[in-house]
Design goal:
The chain has one domain. The chain is 64% helix and 0% strand. The chain is built from 18 helices and no strands. The longest helix has 27 residues. The protein starts with 8 loop residues before the first helix and ends with a helix.
Length: 350
């Protein structure tokens, strides 16, 4: 996306509406599923590139998205720009997760660096202490990679006591997401005007997805104690604490899935069995609906930029899924079933 060069929301909104028609959605997404090689997919998406392998192509897509978020933020004043700028931190969190898994497995820094996303200087990590003798909780080690006073580090330090004894990488990753999402919701709450409610719904649903997957994976896969899961729960998301408590207290995974499916699909329209992939598909389908609604309903205002960024996030996820599916040799039908919006009736069979 060409960089917005002026803070003119009318101009930016018109530009984004034009750009929307070029995204990998609908019929174009169906056509991309029929491509059989990563190299051809890359040519379709980045004609000026020369990508032949999945890893460099995916890296290019992610790093381009980070730059685009910065460009959108530069074109929007006030809390909306701050919200978009903060969304780049999600990729810093992903880098910290890579380091968390590597540290837990005793991997060297040299083996991990190629897996990290290249981020701008304001999101850089100080990895000098990675090779220091292991000591203390995993989350405390991760905090040391962040600059003192950085918002994410401050949020992690505030949550530190709750995760002090956490040694599982899953819990360290949950703590990172918890800190990121708390601040995302705070940025969303600062956006007023006609788009404020739509932005809060979008951010709240993102936090809700995290809470859902925390309950499903944390309790019914990793069998973690409820108290640790409660510490990671993000208040203010679309999944309330009462439902979260019911899910982590459910006797088995199926009962928990049924509770979540009832929240996402109260009329049972999907008709699909309540399994983890179905829950995740329903949740991300709703996220895309909220993003589309925000983009369409905003009248030349900040919601257009934030809605567009969320739609691009889904496009990025779909392109990475396409890339991986082609690498694995999946047929077009199965590959399409893994994309967002996902045909929920087929998810359990994909």
């Amino acid at each position: 996306m060409p960089a917005p060069v002026e803070k003119d929301l009318d101009f930016l909104a018109a530009k984004l509406h034009g750009w929307r028609s070029r995204l990998a959605e609908g019929v174009r997404l169906d056509d991309l599923c029929r491509i059989r090689t990563v190299a051809e997919l890359a040519r379709q998406i980045v004609p000026e590139g020369a990508f032949r392998q999945a890893a460099p192509f995916q890296r290019h897509l992610i790093e381009s998205h980070v730059r685009e978020l910065a460009q959108l933020a530069a074109g929007v004043d006030g809390p909306g720009g701050a919200f978009l700028c903060w969304q780049r931190t999600r990729f810093l969190v992903e880098n910290l997760k890579v380091l968390a898994r590597g540290a837990a497995r005793g991997m060297t820094l040299d083996s991990l660096v190629p897996r990290l996303i290249a981020l701008p200087d304001d999101l850089a990590l100080d990895l000098a202490s990675y090779a220091d003798p292991v000591g203390g909780p995993l989350l405390a080690r991760l905090q040391c990679f962040l600059p003192s006073g950085a918002p994410l580090r401050t949020a992690l330090e505030q949550d530190g006591e709750a995760f002090r004894e956490a040694t599982e990488p899953f819990l360290a990753e949950a703590a990172l997401d918890h800190a990121y999402l708390r601040l995302l919701l705070r940025h969303a709450a600062a956006i007023g005007g006609e788009d404020g409610a739509g932005v809060r719904r979008l951010a709240g649903h993102e936090a809700g997805i995290f809470n859902m997957m925390l309950a499903i994976r944390g309790r019914h896969h990793y069998r973690l104690p409820p108290d640790l899961l409660r510490a990671a729960f993000v208040p203010g998301g679309s999944l309330g604490r009462d439902t979260f408590e019911q899910v982590i207290g459910a006797g088995d995974a199926t009962a928990g899935f049924r509770l979540l499916a009832g929240k996402l699909d109260p009329k049972g329209a999907a008709g699909a069995p309540p399994e983890a992939p179905v829950i995740e598909a329903l949740a991300w389908n709703r996220y895309l609906k909220l993003a589309n609604a925000l983009f369409r309903q905003s009248r030349m205002s900040v919601g257009v930029a934030i809605g567009f960024a969320a739609i691009r996030r889904i496009e990025l996820a779909n392109l990475i899924t396409l890339c991986e599916g082609m690498r694995m040799g999946l047929d077009p039908h199965r590959l399409r079933g893994r994309l967002i919006p996902r045909p929920v009736l087929e998810v359990a069979h994909v």
